[in-house]
Design a protein that fits this description.
This protein is mainly β. 0% of the residues lie in helices and 42% in strands. The strands form 4 sheets. A 4-stranded antiparallel sheet has the order 1-2-5-6, with no helix packed on it. Strands 7-8-9-10 form a 4-stranded antiparallel sheet, with no helix packed on it. A 3-stranded antiparallel sheet has the order 11-12-13, with no helix packed on it.
Amino acid sequence: FGDAGEVQCNPELPQGMGIQQYRISPDEKRLLIVTGRRAGPPAKQVSYLTYRNRFAEAKTTARDTGDDPDAGESYLFCVDLDADAQTPAAGDGKTWEVRKKPQGEAGDLALAEEPFSADSQRFTYATWRRDARELRVWVADPAARKSRPVLTDTADGEHRSPSIADPFFSPDGTRICVLLEKSGYRHAWTI
């Protein structure tokens, strides 16, 4: 971003998925993308009342409810970016599928606003498997295209609590700070 030029970051994602969230590395060489897609129609027809036009009107719509199997898939991708059109991308230039939450597995993905280490060599994220009540904090190495869990824990809070774990690296890159409910309340912990 040292000049007035603009470059569109438009990586090709599988099955034409769009970008839902993104984060760029401090060295501007990598882009993390969170995306997803629905893998099937809603599970139920739900009736509800609307009070537009002064009188109650019953309507029906297709909608999932909390006890239905999760019909969505979510993904975390890492993309190597070109410095400019004349320079090859870092790594092999291909999109790396870091994480996939398959259809039927109820859960979530937590990605902080700044998930990369200061040197851009690693990033961290958390995953949540609702039925197993399992929260994992991961560290990923984009150069090696590998992720490894650094914490596996049971989450004791409400079902959406793990999605706010938002792990991030300390400024020196030696620790990870994450929001956990190990004591029954949300507190910051370091790993």
